[in-house]
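Hi all, long-time lurker, first post. I run a small reading group and we've been trying to get comfortable going from sequence to structure in the token notation. Rather than ask abstract questions, I figured I'd post a concrete chain and ask someone more experienced to write out its structure so we can walk through it together at our next meeting. Sequence below, copied exactly:
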Amino acid sequence: MVQKKIDFRLVYNRKGKLNSEGKALLQIEAYLNGQRKYFSTGIFLKEEEWNEVAGEVTRKHSDQITVNNDIGKLKQSLIDAEYELSREVPNYDLNDLKQRFEKPLHNSFIKFALEQLKDQKNLSTDTVRKQTLHINELKEFAGKDVLFSDLKHPFVEKFKNHLIGQKKHSNTVCTLSDQSGLEN
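-- Answer (accepted) --
Happy to help. Here is the structure in token form:
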């Protein structure tokens, strides 16, 4: 028997409740074999900021393009997780998807970098301290966790310019940006 594919769709205000700001959660519904699981996007929207028919954030949201891109990335992450499951687990179900999605292998660059530092027993305490400061500075610059998918040339250039603007020593700027080996 061939494994059926999971159907994904965006669901706004599934529980019919608004928070104190008049916003409701946007979720991604996964449907397979009569079962449903819901995955939070972490995005709360006002009713007028959501277009149910188009399945996207409207122009009434101040950051429409970015939020729609973030939603697309989350949905693609679920599709990617399903693809991995289809190759590894015969007859997977939504619980398998939930487990795979909620515990991805190093999706976060920040988490990965900090774990790598912790595992390097041959580094001096001073090196670990400095690298931890640099990693935290990257996170502060981004204003959020930095995912591997965020590490593209334009992002690195912006971070490099930020460091230069803060008059960081040239070794710091080179270490944190030029030697990253990131995609263009």
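A couple of things your group might point at:
The two ends are 42 Å apart (CA to CA).
The helical segments are 64-88, 94-102, 109-119, 125-142, 153-165, 170-178.
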